[in-house]
Structures are given as C-alpha cells and as structure tokens.
Design a protein that fits this description.
There is one protein chain. A 3-stranded antiparallel beta sheet has the order 1-3-2. It contains 7 helices and 3 strands, in the order ααβααββααα. α1 runs antiparallel to α2 and α2 crosses α4. It is elongated and about 75 Å long. The termini are far apart. 72% of the residues lie in helices and 7% in strands. With 177 residues, it is mainly alpha-helical. It folds into 2 domains: 89 residues, Arc Repressor Mutant, subunit A; 79 residues.
Length: 177
C-alpha cells in the first residue's frame, strides 16, 4: 500500500496550481482564453473526471464560464463527457495522450486560423486579377508569396496530423539532425 505524505501532497497541489495558472497564461498567448486553458490543465493533470461544480470550485470561476469552456473543450475533442452510474451530473475527463492533444490543437488552429487566411489571400488575388500597374503587381506578388507559404504550412500540418507519434518523432529527429 502506498503511503501518501501530507507535505508532499500539499506541495504537489501548490505546483499543480502554479502549472494550471501558467498554462492559462500560455493559452491566452496561443489564442485561446485563459479559463479554457486552465480547465484543460486541471483535467489533464488530475486523476479523475470532474463535474462542472468541481471545476468551478477548484478554479473559482462562474458556472457559465465553466460550462461554456467545458463544452468548447468537448467540441475540440480535448475533453470527453463521462457519465457515472447512478449520478445525473456530467463529468469531464481530458485527453492525456500528448500526441493526440497536439494533433487536435493543430487541426483546430488550421480550421480557425490557416483556412480563413488562405481564403483571404485567394480572394485578394481574384479581386485584383484585372488591375494593372506596378502597385497592383507588387500587391499580387506579395499576396501570392504569402499564399504559397501558408499553403505549404497547411500541407505540412495535414501530413503531421496523419502521422502517429513514433514515425513523427523519427521524421523530426532526421529533419533536425
């Protein structure tokens, strides 16, 4: 039987709280809201699924904020709903596989950021197709270069998304060597 040292348990909670807070800060820098990132960190580093009430209490957030962000994490595929027999509450558990988390976030960021950027660049090219003169040519050339690069990045993202962890790491180590 494992003995749990109370001091270690308290220290672990302090470190975990610090991680959750910092993960929220990183999340806002990565383009997702702080509470969503904190909820993800809380669930990802915990040992069991939590209810909305438990998330609210642990992070000191409102019910609406917790509910909205939990549903968004479920829609991304980073969190799943767990039903406990005999309990009417929904519980939430996070994906813990780091590679799956990475590919889910990659797909979502492509859908929300890369795809709209590509659409904008393509629309700009179409709208200026008949324009003449040096300014129009410079504009179109720059937009085309941007589109080529963003398309390249999108294609890499699709390739990475299709790889499993082992082959992806082998490819990355070859590339970085």
């Amino acid at each position: 039987m494992n003995k749990v040292n109370v001091a270690d348990s308290q220290s672990l909670e302090e470190v975990r709280d610090s991680f959750i807070a910092q993960w929220g800060t990183y999340g806002s820098q990565w383009g997702i809201n702080r509470t969503m990132a904190q909820i993800h960190a809380l669930l990802m580093t915990g040992t069991e699924a939590l209810s909305t009430d438990e998330v609210m209490e642990r992070l000191s957030v409102s019910r609406g904020n917790a509910h909205t962000n939990l549903k968004e994490l479920v829609s991304w595929g980073l969190v799943r709903i767990v039903i406990k027999k005999g309990d009417r509450k929904e519980y939430f558990d996070a994906e813990r596989d780091v590679w799956k988390i990475f590919t889910i976030i990659l797909r979502e960021r492509q859908r929300r950021e890369i795809d709209p950027a590509l659409e904008l660049l393509r629309n700009c090219q179409e709208e200026t197709q008949g324009y003449e003169g040096e300014e129009a040519e410079v504009f179109r050339n720059q937009v085309k270069e941007l589109e080529n690069f963003v398309s390249f990045a999108r294609n890499i993202g699709h390739k990475v998304d299709k790889l499993s962890y082992g082959p992806a790491m082998k490819l990355a180590s070859k590339f970085l060597s």
